[in-house]
Task: structure prediction
Amino acid sequence: MHTADYDAIVIGGGLAGLTAALFLVQAGCQVLLLEKNRRLGGYAVSYSRRGHRFDIATQALGSCENGGLINQTLQLLDLNGAIRFLPCEPARSYVFGSLQETYEQSGVWEKHIRKLENLFPECDGRFRHCSEIIQRLFEEMLRLAEEDAEEIIYGFSKHFPILSRYSLYTVKRFLDEEGLPPMAQAYFAARAGYCLLPLQRLSLVGFACTEMAFRRGAWMVQGGVERLPRELARRFRSCGGSIKTRESATRIRPDRGRTLEVETEQGSYRAQRVVSAIDAATTLQRLVAEPGASMAPAMRKLDRLEVSGSYHVGFYSIPACRASRLRANLEIRDHHDANPEEDPVGSVLYVLVPSLVDPSSAPPGRHCLCLSLPLAKGAALSRSERLRYRDIAEQKLCSYFPELTGHLEGMFDLGPKQLALMTGNNRGSAYGWAQTVKQSGLYRFPMSPGIPGLYLAGHWTMPGGGIAGVMTSGRLCAQRVLSEMSGSKGES
Result:
């Protein structure tokens, strides 16, 4: 066993951990990043099979445009231009029951609203009013996260009036009060499927964070989503950061006053600050050696929280000549209010053809195809169940696109167990905690769980799941660490 000292240790080499680590090392800190797997990236990884490249758990990204959250973060990290984002327009296409009822959602917010107004002229300006409320919710959420929600007690309703009013609203309650009929609600909130919850359970704040991340388009990463963690890691190392892969943290314990010690099977490392960017339950229930009374509120909250759902994903090669009617990002629903929680076996199918956006991801004459079935929380598929889900997805796709029958060349498939192994996420959770009313916005898990020097980052904290959310969380966490380190130096 060896012991080494650092200014900060980051546990977890996903996008949240890499983002936090790079911000810290750019500020002059000596930083160690620990990753249990051989590969960095968490869910942001790509795999190649017979000339096809698949992004394992990514459909499309939001906030990659100039001024978007991901773009801003990369600029702050001196990575502007290192990664090229390819626009996916329409941002998503929806099939509601038949190909004759297809809705294409523009990634340009104004075009999206105008199209809704044309489809539902009886709704007057209600779509625009709803969109203004959602945009203001998103803006207040970001400002709240920047100002540290845990420290804001007085004057909240004055400084955050929209959050104060709507923090306990579901999407369904909000749209009902705004007078949108059920069909108009389905079209307006079509992208809520990303959150794996029905509108009557989905937090309005959580929906706003997802929806506004895509208000200026959907994007894919040229060369595969793994370019993001690869460039972050390259920059981190060039700034003097240290990365140890295949080294899993086994314990976090206080050491010599305000210092924390992180133990692994290979050694132990000390730092004044530790950022855990892995599953929050794993951190607090398994890694923290001496929780103490200060962590009691966080532990009580942990018992009440529920994880998000997961996916079964199948990966295929198809002939390019059979893909003329497909779209790059397509969602098929049996009916407008199809809901994987109530009807978990195939009521919703996500179809992704990334090579329609990035031709380099497939050989000439072929296309990559990903079929994803959303699963309710806690689902665990055996090998036979994975085969059954693969058959369900293939049959549903071919019922809408019969020209693909007999032309789906299966590559491999993944279920919650495999996704859990990749990330360590509880039961293969796709987005950390589910975006229910009591788990979104103000009610998200705190960045500081109650142990001096320990911080949480990733989709377990504000602002929530998705690549834009976790990278923003990593940035905000690093800012908090640097601020408190600066305060400690001033005190001494």
Summary: Residues 307-423 form one domain. The longest strand covers residues 310-319. The mean pLDDT is 89.
